[in-house]
Write a structure and sequence with these properties.
The structure is a homodimer of 410-residue chains.
Chain A (H helix, E strand, L loop, with lengths): L20 E6 L11 E6 L4 E6 L7 H12 L4 E8 L5 H19 L6 E8 L6 H11 L9 H7 L8 E9 L2 E10 L12 E6 L5 H13 L16 E6 L16 H21 L7 E9 L2 H13 L1 H8 L6 H8 L11 E4 L2 E5 L2 E2 L5 H8 L3 E7 L5 E8 L3 H7 L5
Helix pairs in contact in A: 2-3, 5-6, 7-9
Chain lengths: 410, 410
């Protein structure tokens, strides 16, 4: 990995073991690099699964097959290939994924729909079948100690500068259940779609339909509320696995005792993982929270917030620690949502810079400039029209983003 | 002006005089710079006017007043202030514009609606009234020689690196009529709205309604088909003035003899000016033409083309001369328009790199890499679904864009 993002957490967190989940990593050498790039997670029989995937129409074979597996509702294994997205590779790419699934089915004697494969990296190059087969052979049936969460989190990365994990717990009728997740993502991150690659595991017993319901709700305010560069991956996938090993009576509805607590834990893990992706945004030097209030609806507020969060001019101004709030006005006005210039108010941090269509009386830029020198920036816009509100997270746009992306394949 | 864009034309073109149009420039010192920044254009009585303005909801007072003038249909003067956009400045900004209009009305004894004012530069700072009054006093009633087109084109600029002008002519029933235009724009350029600041003049006699009809049509395929950074100015304005001094019988419908020829000249000037804005895109090192065909409709093709043209990952790849066509696939897929991964074809220049959902057989990257080393890049996507097609123009995304915009106000 390259230099760790200045916005990274101090260290990888301690994640609990999730009963029914075992991990292995291997070197498939999908790229010519000195690291593991194949992750294999085996799940106990009976594990429920939920998932959300990219809305990008040109999605990968992996995503199409994940959707079939999600509909099936049960999972036995997850394989993640890093360094090659295998997207837009036609029948050759599909053959590679089918080979991986067949190899796992032969080992676990399970339904092919219960094997989930993700791939991430360059688009348009078929995943090399020989490397996949040899890499997978190293981890299937391996008897030694499992890979750590941190190893797995590191093995699924591509341009990420730090491995990302999070955990929470909940109590279901007196039993503690654990939730742990890992995620990768740094660029090609846009919120209109599912997300990058994220995997969350719990030992709680949950029916697949309820699990899916919880994941859909959690994703909206977490993975779907972040943006790095407004670009949406062809491979975005978040999967949530519930092994049922905690021994609780299986949850089937949100009214079941403990369901709300479990949801809160899932939401907390998803939010932390999503924000870590922004903190590792390509070239990021500032973490930015955009809060919009006073919109005609929450959805309208969200669109305005994304217009601000995706504006190259807003993002470069913040990179330059420049309180150029006129660009926030511009981004509100171009969003295509109801707004009234003369009721609009803008703030940085807790400092209002403009209200009712003009700069505030006696505007003092000093505290605003001080806020912008920090690593955590908050931008607020109140539209003054209604009760709609939304929060999204993004990072600034810097020379680092250009350097990383003008020369990605070499 | 800073270093001239590598994509700039060799020199400012020779533009014809337009009878009934006289120009003056002055130093109002809206910023502390060593250049003219106030442009005054006086138009002969009877001049017709048409215009298109930004769709940004947070538009400036200038834009609101231009709209009233466009509805009126007649013009006597145009004033352009550079260095201060006077947008989001509330009643203070409005007072400054009203003072300018009153000063011109006192001189010309005309209807206030016939005075058009534009301002461009930083948002949120009221235009200084004293500087405007003193600057305008230097040019109103000035008896010496008019400013050249190049002087005027240079005086309306802000971050532009070269002045932009274009001209064409047409024959209306045996009489030659002239069309000449100037434009400024470099950043905060997005095509969903009207445009930056552009002014086109003709000596043809044309009824205001027909003039507006011609401008609307020309704008769609020119100023509204370019993007630098997907950000839309609060001040975007294009005005088209027709002085009627050519002596032709006034045109009132598109069926009148010569109307098509005049339209073609207006379209040619608008297209050249729009492409010059892209050639001066902030930090641009490549001029990019994006052609989409095979879409279900022209409008759908346009949205897909804009998704490609606005993708930071596509633009940085081209800056890096990297044939990373997977990013074009990604941008097609995220556009939200009908597309079928397995019918999609992508090309750079005339070289097809992918067809029917996978790389072309025997793909040779050498000629593609050679095309990408040039200054003029063509990206094509055929969706294979229908007859819809569209072309848009953009530039690459480079370190220069970050440098310019992270430190714009200092």
């Amino acid at each position: 990995m390259t230099t760790r993002s200045p916005l990274a957490p101090a260290a990888f967190p301690t994640l609990p073991d999730i009963a029914g989940v075992s991990r292995r990593v291997a070197r498939a050498q999908y790229k010519n690099w000195d690291r593991c790039d194949l992750t294999y997670v085996e799940l106990v029989p009976g594990t429920a699964v939920a998932g959300v995937t990219t809305r990008n129409i040109c999605c990968s074979t992996e995503v199409e097959m994940c959707r079939e597996g999600i509909a099936h509702g049960r999972a036995r294994a997850l394989i993640v290939n890093a360094g090659n997205a295998n997207a837009f590779t036609g029948y050759r790419g599909r053959e590679a994924v089918e080979q991986i699934v067949a190899q796992v089915v032969a080992h676990l004697d399970c339904d092919p729909k219960e094997v989930f494969v993700s791939s991430t990296g360059v688009i348009g190059v078929p995943l090399p079948k020989d490397k996949a087969r040899e890499g997978l052979a190293k981890v299937i049936g391996f008897a030694g100690p499992p890979a750590s969460w941190e190893d797995a989190a590191r093995t699924i990365t591509t341009t990420d500068t730090f491995p990302k994990g999070s955990a929470a717990s909940a109590i279901i009728e007196g039993r503690t259940v654990q939730v742990a997740g890992i995620v990768k993502g740094s660029g090609m991150i846009a919120p209109d779609m599912a997300t990058m690659l994220g995997y969350i595991f719990t030992d709680a017993a949950v029916a697949p339909a309820l699990l899916q319901d919880m994941l859909n709700e959690a994703t909206g305010a977490t993975f779907n509320s972040i943006t790095v560069d407004s670009d949406t991956s062809t491979s975005d996938t978040v999967l949530l696995f519930a092994t049922g090993q905690a021994g609780n009576a299986p949850l089937t509805t949100r009214d079941d005792p403990g369901a709300d607590a479990l949801y809160a834990a899932i939401h907390a893990v998803a939010l932390d993982l999503a924000q870590q992706v922004v903190r590792d945004g390509e070239g990021a030097s500032k973490f930015i929270e955009v809060q919009v209030s006073g919109a005609v609806s929450d959805e309208s507020a969200r669109r305005v917030a994304l217009s601000i969060a995706n504006s190259p001019l807003v993002k470069t101004a913040i990179a330059g620690e420049d309180a150029n709030w006129g660009r926030v006005v511009m981004a509100v006005g171009k969003a295509g949502e109801p707004a009234d210039r003369d009721r609009l108010a803008i703030r940085f941090g807790d400092h209002w810079v403009a209200k009712d269509g003009l700069p505030v009386d006696g505007y003092d830029e000093a505290p605003v400039a001080a806020h912008l020198k920090g690593l955590e920036i908050r931008v607020g816009a109140d539209l003054g029209l209604g009760e709609g509100r939304a929060t999204v997270w993004t990072c600034d746009l810097t020379h680092g983003y250009i350097s990383i992306n003008a020369d990605y394949r070499s």
